[in-house]
Design brief:
about 230 residues; 3-stranded mixed sheet; about 20% helix; globular
Length: about 230
């Protein structure tokens, strides 16, 4: 009697192969998932993160209110001075000198040195000092501007200078230097042939002197028989 042989199960068939492959894939997936979880839990800064949502741009800063001059105020650190939008000092340049309390002739000279005009207004009090000016002292002005000067006392007397024979322009300068003002009733060309008041007379500051400029017309000879030779 022969022993019956039991069929031996083939452990190397296709089914075992599929089992091994499936198990290997599962192990690989578990390793990948575990590694990804470790990256996420560790918060590694170099790992890029993907997002399906678009990143919105940062919100724009609120508008800054404009200052008094229309420019936005500048912010600074605590305790620092901030600009106020106004000038802290007058603009540099020509200004009216301080003349109050000065003798009016000296005040006039200071204005002339700065190439400014002047207008003297004498008062009814006493003295020769300046009591106020317009524009005020320190005010910015341009060359040629006339400054009005108020004097405490009346206009002093002056002696009319002799300007006969001078050019009309030179005579005018001499009269202004003496405190007088020239008039030109017959034009301003030529030498001075006459003046009123006369030279050496008495006048007061701001008085006018009439100048006759140019040679006086010569007399015409009368008609008559020509002289006999």
């Amino acid at each position: 009697m022969t022993d019956e042989q039991q069929p031996v199960r083939d452990e190397t068939g296709p089914g075992r192969t599929r089992l091994l492959v499936g198990g290997g894939l599962a192990a690989v997936l578990l390793a990948v998932i575990g590694a990804s979880g470790g990256w996420i839990l560790a918060g590694h800064p170099d790992r890029p993160t993907a997002s399906s949502e678009a990143v919105s741009p940062p919100a724009a800063p609120p508008p800054v209110p404009s200052g008094p001059t229309g420019a936005a105020p500048t912010t600074g650190r605590p305790g620092e001075d901030r600009p106020t939008g106004t000038r802290s000092r007058p603009p540099a340049g020509l200004t009216v000198p301080q003349l109050v309390g000065t003798d009016f002739e000296r005040a006039r000279q200071q204005l002339r040195d700065r190439r400014l005009g002047w207008r003297l207004v004498f008062g009814s009090g006493s003295g020769r000092t300046v009591e106020r000016t317009s524009p005020r002292p320190g005010a910015p002005v341009k060359r040629g501007v006339t400054v009005t000067v108020w004097v405490t006392g009346p206009a002093p007397e002056v002696t009319v200078p002799d300007v006969g024979g001078e050019s009309c322009s030179d005579a005018a300068d001499d009269l202004v230097e003496a405190g007088l003002y020239p008039r030109y009733p017959a034009g301003r060309q030529g030498p001075v042939s006459g003046q009123d008041p006369a030279a050496g007379g008495t006048a007061h500051w701001n008085d006018q002197v009439s100048l006759t400029c140019g040679n006086e017309p010569s007399s015409t000879p009368s008609d008559g028989p020509p002289p006999t030779p």
